[in-house]
Amino acid sequence: MTTITLVQGDITRVSADAIVNAANSSLLGGGGVDGAIHRRGGPAILRECRALRASRYGKGLPTGRAVATIAGDLDARWVIHTVGPVYSETEDQSDLLASCYRESLRVADGLGARTVAFPAISTGVFRWPMTDAARIAVTAVREAETAVREVGFVLFDERAYAAFASQLPD
Ligand code: AR6
């Protein structure tokens, strides 16, 4: 059984075996949680991202996939970078968003991670409506077959926290 916990705060301040980054396919950093992780984690993470671009992901990491690097100065062993879909009003990309959670947990299993912290993927720059994103995230984690013991959703503000809380029993 995987326990789901909710925390309101900054994901770069939490302690976990693996911290998930809402990256973009370039793997070369950006704003939002991606920028915060690279800032606090230090340049070692970006160095490994660049190496991944040069070796396995010359065309970028596809949307819905995940890949791990070291975690630099963060209080974690690994950062798992995943690329959420940009929200579309015309196309249902829910499965790609769910895939970010599934693939991140699959990568976590490969590493032997037992605790994983997720941000609310795609709900910032990529504009996914928070309540819908929370439903997809919680469902994907609940349905995942994983050896991860604890998944913590780290929500940046009260609105995000409330949206995720509404998806869990009291
Ligand atoms: N800790 C936890 N959550 C955070 C933090 C933080 N330090 N900072 C922001 N959030 P976003 P996306 C929340 O934009 O929508 C980047 O430029 C934020 O409030 O970080 O998947 C990448 O390089 C929001 O709820 O990621 C990509 O280009 C959630 O994290 C693009 O943005 C996700 O917001 C990815 O966009």
UniProtKB/TrEMBL annotation:
- Spell out the SUPFAM superfamilies in the cross-references: Macro domain-like
**CDD domains xref list:** Macro_OAADPr_deacetylase
Q: Which UniProt keywords apply?
A: Hydrolase
Q: Where is the Macro domain?
A: 1-170
- For the keyword Hydrolase, the answer is yes
**Listed Gene3D superfamilies:** Leucine Aminopeptidase, subunit E, domain 1
Is Hydrolase found in the keyword set?
yes
Q: Which GO terms describe its molecular function?
A: O-acetyl-ADP-ribose deacetylase activity
E.C. number: 3.1.1.106
Q: What is this protein called?
A: O-acetyl-ADP-ribose deacetylase
